[in-house]
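User: Show me a protein chain along with its predicted structure.
Assistant: Here is one chain, sequence first, then structure tokens.
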Amino acid sequence: MRVGKHTSTRSVGGMGRHMNRTRPTPNADPERQHLNMTWLADGGWMPWEKRSPLNLNTPLNEHLEDFKKGGGTIRKDSVLTIELMLSASPDWFKQASRDQFNEWMKRNTKWLAETFGKKNVLQIVLHRDETTPHLHAMVIPEIEMVETRGRRRKDGTPQAPKEPKPALAASRWLDGKEKLGALQDSYAAAMSPLGLERGLKGSGA
């Protein structure tokens, strides 16, 4: 697993062009591009030969607009999306049956939805036009947060609890080695029934 952060729509759009092959990708085989697939929360998996992938900024802007309408605030340094690259060893893919490959896809999709919330998963793309199959996922690190400051009046009596508001909080998953390690452990546990093992801790795998 590789993890990255994006703090601007321009950065997200640039990665989206790589994911959706709308910019040159020298290490990808155009003859195999039809084997790629896209997952969206409202439609599941769709092969590119049936529907071209959407511009990633379209669902991002729609989500962020709803986020702001719900009371969320976007700061200049806010992490808008977390990017994950998920794969397995080339040897595993070489020996995997079609059923095993489909189960790998299913387990990845389920893990992403359970870890970050299904509505926060903007897009998942399966690339089969490169040497080793892999997934790129772009998720919005949105959580519900309750303001806890100023919860008591000057006379010491508690104020009524405030309504939760949406917040962008990539730190919930990526704040330091411990949390990142826990994220990798969680992913490894989800893939272990397929015979896949976690990479060496501290290696980024």
